[in-house]
Amino acid sequence: MKEHANGNGRASRDAAEQRREQMLRAALEVIVERGYADTRIADVAERTGTSPALVIYYFKTREQLLTEAIRYSEDTWYAEFLRRMQEIPTAAGQLTELMAMICLPGNPEPRSYWLLWLDFWAQSPRSAGVAAVRQKSDEQWREAIRSIVQAGQEAGEFAPVDVDDFTITLAALLDGLAVQIALEDPQVPPQRTYDLAMRFAAGQLGFDWKPAPKRARKSGR
Amino acid sequence: MKEHANGNGRASRDAAEQRREQMLRAALEVIVERGYADTRIADVAERTGTSPALVIYYFKTREQLLTEAIRYSEDTWYAEFLRRMQEIPTAAGQLTELMAMICLPGNPEPRSYWLLWLDFWAQSPRSAGVAAVRQKSDEQWREAIRSIVQAGQEAGEFAPVDVDDFTITLAALLDGLAVQIALEDPQVPPQRTYDLAMRFAAGQLGFDWKPAPKRARKSGR
DNA sequence: AAAGATTGACTGAACATTCAGTCTAGAAGC
DNA sequence: GCTTCTAGACTGAATGTTCAGTCAATCTTT
Fold first, then answer.
1. How crowded is residue A73: how many other Cβ atoms within 10 Å of its Cβ?
2. I need a labelling partner for B138 at 20 to 30 A (CA). Which of A147, B107, B119, B165 fits?
3. Closest by alpha carbon to B181, among A86, A121, A174?
4. Average pLDDT of the segment spanning A2-13
5. How far is the CA of A17 from the C1' of D29 (A)?
6. Does strand C come within 7 Å of the CB of B13?
7. DSSP state for residue A79 in the 8-state scheme
8. Which residues have CB under 8 Å from B165's CB, separation 6+?
9. Handedness of CA B220, A170, B169, A213 (dihedral sign)
10. Is residue A14 very low, low, confident or very high in pLDDT (cuts 50, 70, 90)?
11. B30 in contact with chain A, both atoms CB, cutoff 8 A
12. What is the pTM of this model?
């Protein structure tokens, strides 16, 4: 269980790093379940099979634990996003994959992710730490869209719309749809958010996209 | 200060009603400042110049106070919205006024209103009471858009887009822009949210709209 | 390589504070 | 005098943080 060995304190430093991550992941789980404000140190301790004191030992304060947790979440998500983008050649394909990551159930589970964001938004006005992470993520996020669109335009895939306007609009649209995903509005299931977002992007950028084959056609409304 | 007088318990019942509203308004102020989760009974008591015990006297529990407060906020906002709609003849005009109410600084201050909503969203997954109010407001909200669009189409003002799809998309877009308004993102000031939302609506529905005369043209980006 | 010294990881118990909600008793209005 | 309204003192339960000290591993010294 203990990987001691090699010379200096390397092993224990690794172990410590693992501990930290374990706690960060546990914190994220608890935030999703109980909400940011109601996440207690004791919860994280319990979930990592340790004591509240140890959590404070690693993170000086509760706030530090929580802000590091959200930073961790963002970094992880963004890294996965970049990884996927690199495997896709066309801008339209990249945009499609991005939408899927955001809207459709899959590996980084969008609902959990967006539940976190609802909390970040609510916390931002009152917490400088959260606000900073949110702002940075938001910019990174828009920059990602922007660069895909720009590349697509240069490759002739996309119509020459104003990149900034389109980016902000799409980002906002996705945020709004994300709320519905997170809150599981029965009127707006994930597949529908995906279709609507794709239709908007395809319409504005002028690339072809056909909505997924509808299963049963809902009758009224 | 005390309006006693007339016969039975009417006066005191009115006074009690006023007290309640006073407390509800105070609660909303505190929620905006400190956030839903950190709103204490003592804050509301202090702001109304009374005691915590009295707040509990009127609302049995803290949760009841808070959920009634958000209901009150929604009812007030929606009533004002309806009032304004009735004074506008065209569907395009109504839609424009709606956007202004949502985006541009004015009487029901959008930023405060949206800050409340950020909290409602974050609270919804864990509070049945909040979730219920939110869901109802959301539906009411979409229904309002839908009926304006439908009227506009019947009057020949608007292009015949799919009403449901358009409604959900616009509602989501506005929610997303609202996040930027609430969080005061420097990249996306209120005027810009208004312009983008209007451009989207005008483009989709095919009515004329010219962006407000830009003041100073920002140079780079 | 054995003995001692040092460090990092960790715990249990206590502390201090914060707060929702209760209780009691009094004031105000009818 | 009966009901409604109000405040202040209080309670009980959480919960973040501190602290003194244990334990095991590693480093130093001889």
1. 24
2. B107
3. A121
4. 40
5. 31
6. no
7. H
8. A196, A199
9. positive
10. low
11. no
12. 0.89
Q: Which nt is closest to the CA of A9, judged by C1'?
A: D26
- Under the banding of pLDDT at 50, 70 and 90, the label for residue A220 is very low
Q: Are A119 and B37 in contact (CB under 8 A)?
A: no
Q: In Å, how far are A32, A65, A74, A114, A191 from A108, measured between CA atoms? A: 14, 22, 11, 11, 16
Residue in this structure with the two tokens 């529990």, named with its chain if needed: B61
pLDDT value, residue B16: 72
Please answer yes or no on whether B182 and A134 come within 8 Å at the CB atom. Answer: no
CB nearest A169 (choices: B125, B131, B200): B200
Please tell me whether residue A36 adopts helix, strand or coil conformation: coil
Q: What is the pLDDT of residue A10?
A: 47
pLDDT of residue B216: 55
Residues A168 and A143: their CA atoms lie apart, in Å, by 10
In the numeric block, the tokens 């709209």 are attached to B209
Give, in Å, how far the C1' of D18 lies from the CA of A50. Answer: 17
d(CA A59, CA A56): 5
Q: How far apart are CA B69 and CA B84, in angstroms?
A: 23
Task: Indicate the burial class of A26 (C-beta count within 10 angstroms; 0-12, 13-18, 19 or more).
Answer: buried
Question: In this structure, what are the phi and psi dihedrals at residue B49, rounded to the nearest 5 degrees?
Answer: 65, 30
Chain A positions in Cβ-Cβ contact with residue B121 (cut-off 8 Å): 118, 121-122, 179, 182-183
